[in-house]
């Protein structure tokens, strides 16, 4: 089944060219189906790129999904046009009285800032508090995962000596969470961050289980037992060339960053990287939609 999105959203044409089934909101209105209502709080600078990456993963299930794109009202984007935000995005205040089956909170390139120093942190805490009553399950990604762990459970982040960047092997921790259904015992996933969260701090909460870790990149996946809070510290949504574009952006700006590990063939930045994590990225999002959202959400989300 398709993801429902506005007809003129830029991501739509890209996904249709990839033979991904998308549907206009007009056509969806004629179907006698209650679609899952999924919101995406997009904190990334290149919002169109992130929209496309996430919608690609959300499309690969038998469920019909209605997307609401959100941006922060207390931060002005310098990399996405005001016209795009006006056409396709809402602010939190515009949806605060609604209930959603699921919410995705993306990463943001602000990891080195203390949470309280982020200009939209007060708005972010309002959103995180709101998810407890108005969202069936929230999927936090990268900085979004760190923000959620900190606000809900007091888990701090720690700056690392060298940026964690690359495609790393991960192993399951033995948890029986449905989020892991179908996962290989060892799987690959990309990371791109300057800070880390510690497995011991997460486990010490007594409320969040660590589900998958990497010897090199640390915690990758954690969740509450009821699946209402899921935390992914990496970027399973990344395209094959995303880490390469980030690396070249940083080096062009004179920023000293390591060559992404286990990413370029032969560790040669001139070589074309390949996507070796796509399957598990799709599986993670499908499991989240099925087990944490669809199987748990009431038919009338306002009664959740």
UniProtKB/TrEMBL annotation:
Keywords: Acyltransferase, Amino-acid biosynthesis, Cytoplasm, Methionine biosynthesis, Transferase. The keyword Transport does not apply. The active site is at 142 (acyl-thioester intermediate), 235 (proton acceptor), 237. The keyword Ligase does not apply. It catalyses: L-homoserine + acetyl-CoA = O-acetyl-L-homoserine + CoA. GO terms for cellular component: cytoplasm. Pathway: Amino-acid biosynthesis; L-methionine biosynthesis via de novo pathway; O-acetyl-L-homoserine from L-homoserine: step 1/1. GO terms for biological process: L-methionine biosynthetic process from homoserine via O-succinyl-L-homoserine and cystathionine. It is found in: Cytoplasm. InterPro entries: Class_I_gatase-like (IPR029062), HST_MetA (IPR005697), MetA_family (IPR033752). Signal peptide: none annotated. The record marks 192 as: Important for substrate specificity. It is an enzyme of class 2 (transferase). It holds the Pfam family HTS. Substrate binds at residues 163, 192, 249. The record marks 111 as: Important for acyl-CoA specificity. GO terms for molecular function: homoserine O-acetyltransferase activity; homoserine O-succinyltransferase activity. NCBIfam families: metA. Belongs to the MetA family. Transfers an acetyl group from acetyl-CoA to L-homoserine, forming acetyl-L-homoserine. This is Homoserine O-acetyltransferase. It comes from Gordonia humi.
